[in-house]
Design the sequence.
């Protein structure tokens, strides 16, 4: 067993086709991002770092955006969706911890800005981002669905719209470089989405 | 007079330093965008089209993003902010006509996506976008301020937050390529911002 492990570690990653080597490439991609930032990030640099061939990487990731997005997703998945017992608590935690707070202090904000930027001019990058977004949003609906089950909101609430409003607010702050400033607005944003504009009467 | 006009038209744009030549460069920039799209847009191509020197263009626009943003702004300014008499009407018109509808059928959506993308990696582009955003949002506050004056909302409503939520929703749809699909959500978005989530009770 030990021999086999040693043997594997000496072989190039490209020779193996298993999840472990995908992980090894993601590790390499993360290291390249940490050391050289977005500017130094390329399939070539990751291949060199992982001691893998470029075709091996392209077999799993069609472009550098898709690979960046997977590094990003790995970090993201380390944070579970909140379950505080109330919709307000969940949405505040979602916006504060999963979105703005996730981007504020880490490389993740920079990486996600680059992913979004590349999706604006590259069809493959756009497809990768759309797939990621669709999956994340689908999973985030549980926050609203649980609130429906608790009777906190009407059964016919458009859960996707609620999640969209919160995610959109966060994206906008990220893309105009106002993540840090907007952290103090988290509760006000969630309260507006839940309660509307103070004193509004048609 | 006619002679002077003819004379001016024969001189290169770079020789004049007046608003008219800025307009001529913007006309050229617009023509380049219409004909070659984002991919063919460069200071060089605009200079050639305007029969101006590149330094003339750089005197007014530090980078291609700033120039694209000014072409975009010129279109945008042709649409006045709505004044329907109600906040709901104004926000629906703002989102429908000034944001999503403005981007849907025209080159403007493509140009703005490119501007936002470039602002993610270029400090000069980010600065240009931030200045544009700050100005637009400042001017959009009038929609909420008028509602305050009419007594439609509380005096202490955070007008910037209301505008931010609407603008952010629109940006997100633009950047994930969902502008057309989201047009049908305009009223629901505004109603959520004004009235909150249906049936919500804490």
Sequence:
């Amino acid at each position: 067993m030990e021999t086999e492990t040693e043997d594997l570690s000496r072989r190039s990653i490209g020779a193996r086709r298993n999840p472990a080597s995908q992980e090894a490439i993601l590790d390499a991609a993360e290291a390249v991002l940490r050391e050289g930032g977005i500017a130094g990030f390329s399939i070539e640099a990751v291949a060199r770092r992982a001691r893998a061939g470029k075709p091996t990487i392209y077999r799993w990731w069609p472009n550098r955006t898709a690979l960046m997005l997977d590094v990003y997703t790995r970090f993201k998945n380390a944070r579970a969706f909140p379950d505080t017992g109330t919709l307000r608590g969940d949405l505040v935690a979602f916006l504060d911890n999963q979105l703005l707070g996730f981007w504020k202090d880490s490389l993740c904000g920079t990486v996600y800005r680059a992913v979004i930027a590349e999706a604006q001019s590259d069809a493959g990058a756009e497809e990768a981002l759309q797939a990621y977004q669709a999956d994340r949003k689908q999973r985030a609906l549980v926050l609203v669905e649980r609130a429906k089950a608790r009777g906190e909101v009407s059964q016919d609430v458009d859960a996707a719209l609620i999640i969209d409003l919160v995610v959109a607010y966060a994206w906008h702050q990220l893309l105009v470089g106002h993540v840090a400033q907007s952290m103090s607005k988290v509760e006000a944003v969630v309260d507006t989405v839940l309660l509307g504009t103070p004193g509004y009467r048609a």
Summary: Chain A touches chain B through 49 residues (CB under 8 Å). Residues 1-17 of chain A have pLDDT under 50 and may be disordered. Chain A has two domains: 2-60, 72-195. DSSP finds eleven helices and no strands in chain A.
